[in-house]
Amino acid sequence: MNMSTELTMLRQILRHARPNVLIVGSWRLIEAVRQTLTPLVALPICLCLLPGPLTLARGRLGTLLVEDVAALRLDQQTELLQWLSKDHRVQVISATSTPLFPLVQTGTFSETLYYRLNVLTIHE
Fold first, then answer.
1. Number of H helices, E strands in the chain
2. Of 34, 85, 92, 112, which sits most exposed with the smallest number of CB within 10 A?
């Protein structure tokens, strides 16, 4: 499937549901998907740029965009997972150029967080 077809399917899915989305690929792909998603996601949007401090939305609704999720330290992964486990109805859209499952296998990325973020995956 080409990227245009995948983006069209993604638009259709997001009109009816708000799954967490994991984008794995080049930054060109990540930017194209993010531009497609922005008009379709719930407001407010909280952008978390990594590496750096983990910035989480204060409200219970909206969308959290996590750029370079593979850069999360284990303590940040735990913090994000605890935050998501509370009564938040926030859609998480995370991006990385590094495949996460090998990081799960080596213990440097939380398996629980991986499966929480990996509801819908878009990759090259």
1. 5, 5
2. 85
